[in-house]
Amino acid sequence: MQPLFSRLLRRSPLLRHHHLLNPNPNPNLSHLHLLRSISSSSVPDSDIRKYAGYFVLLLGCGAATYYSFPFPADAKHKRAQIFKYAPLPDDLHTVSNWSGTHEVATRVFLQPESISDLEKVVKEANEKKQRIRPVGSGLSPNGIGLSRLGMVNLALMDKVLEVNKEAKTVRVQAGIRVSQLVDALKEHGLTLQNFASIREQQIGGIVQVGAHGTGAKLPPIDEQVISMKIVTPAKGTIEVSKEKNPELFYLARCGLGALGVVAEVTLQCVERHELMEHTFVSNADEIKKNHKKWLGENKHIKYLWIPYTDTVVVVKCNPFSKWKSPKLTSKYTKDEAIQHVRNLYQESLAKYRVEPAADEPNINELSFTELRDKLIALDPLNKDHVMQVNKAEAEYWKKSEGYRVGWSDEILGFDCGGQQWVSETCFPTGSLAKPNMKDLEYIEELMKLIEKEDVPAPAPIEQRWTARSKSPMSIASSPHEDDIFSWVGIIMYLPTMDVRQRKDITEEFFHYRHLTQSTLWDHYSAFEHWAKIEVPKDKEELSELQDRLRKRFPVDAFNKARKELDPNRILSNAKLDKLFPLLESPQ
């Protein structure tokens, strides 16, 4: 093996120059002879001193390493082994939200099977001051239910306890999923009044974060709650309703899991019914002309705005009448509606010189949202590329116009696409009798902001509406019965598992979110959905957020209830502690 210094010199321009002058160098030259050969040429003394210094430095580092980390006596007889990570402990549970944007590992993950088990779990945790944050299905985009210090999950408490067909009510354990409950209600001819986009949330979770569907006459889902049974650390199991402790009932109905573990919920249901969905493409001018009328006359309505286009997808859903049913067939088949998106994907693969993976599914078997994810993944932060994908989406919706009929729980679902960052804000927009059009002004400013700042904003920007909620911690809370609220969600997809690419998308999304926050939120009194609010890392920004929340919500009353029901804050987590700081720390 060549000496280190000799190898170092062979990499230098000086040594290459020396070989050019001496085409038959003697490989057995000593270092001294080599240095003399170099010094006899036109090489400056400063260069000789520099490389001699390198040699001394390397020699010193080698000596220091040897004496600091001496080899054992038998080292030369041992075989080298590949480094291995220590295995994770068997009792370590990793819990991630659906989009993989928030994840924690904990040794405390409890799943009681009955209310008596839950009562024991909460009592023991309170005595030990062990945190057990209530976590539902873990779907919240901001991971509001996650805590590395410990969690309690009610997935094993998922029973329907009682159905009152005459009163149209159902009492359930809080761990039951929406999809399970809807299936169980079918035989009784009942269903839930409204639905969010997906069905996998636990009932306890969907209520506690104030989730919502759409329809200006329909309130958020917490308004469907008639009574609750909550297990509290300090006062045991409490049953609350409009009649029993109404103040706590309304506060705990959207209590963010901080006032007690919701064990049982009684919900007001409605008769099972079919809806007719009408999907069509419009534009901003047309919507301005019809918006007030559409809000009032449609049971469910939402707009899907597509950035960098003049396309707005309108989706209306109303009770189905066999006597007033239009032609249900669409102009295009599903294959015809999506074919141009397939073509764009094939062209983009060639453009970006990407070879499909060996296990790549057949392109003809992919849904539109799956194709969109694959398209965006090719260049997710290139505005021009995203614009092209958005235009393809606009064309897809134009070819998908038409009607369909189905049960309400089937029709009101929405394929949100793959993993994504999302920020959804809610703000007042007048009353049902007098909409103030602030909802459309908000969108108009948002679209201008996107284009001005060259944001690679994918579609859709989803806009929905609800009536008010009487729960004071609801984002849509209001004392006025006729008030309506608009909900607007911005997104950026995470269509790849590449760590660097996900990091870049995350940074761009938070820049996008910050632009909307600084430009729109205060002007429109907009607040983020509790399941989507992100806590700022900057102390000044966090302080400003805390002040904003205090002006909008009864934070003092909420914190007072937390102190009374959970004095050791075992049901809290870092996110809640930062959003709603208590003056006194737990003992």
From TrEMBL:
This is FAD-binding PCMH-type domain-containing protein. Pathway: Cofactor biosynthesis; L-ascorbate biosynthesis. Keywords: Oxidoreductase. One of its GO terms (cellular component) is membrane. Pfam families: ALO, FAD_binding_4. InterPro entries: ALO_C (IPR007173), FAD-bd_PCMH (IPR016166), FAD-bd_PCMH-like_sf (IPR036318), FAD-bd_PCMH_sub1 (IPR016167), FAD-bd_PCMH_sub2 (IPR016169), FAD_lactone_oxidase-like (IPR010031), GL_DH (IPR010029), Oxid_FAD_bind_N (IPR006094). The keyword Zinc-finger does not apply. The keyword Oxidoreductase applies. Gene3D superfamilies: 3.30.465.10, Uridine Diphospho-n-acetylenolpyruvylglucosamine Reductase, domain 2 (3.30.43.10). Residues 101-272 form the FAD-binding PCMH-type domain. GO terms for molecular function: D-arabinono-1,4-lactone oxidase activity; FAD binding; galactonolactone dehydrogenase activity. SUPFAM superfamilies: FAD-binding/transporter-associated domain-like. Its cofactor is FAD.
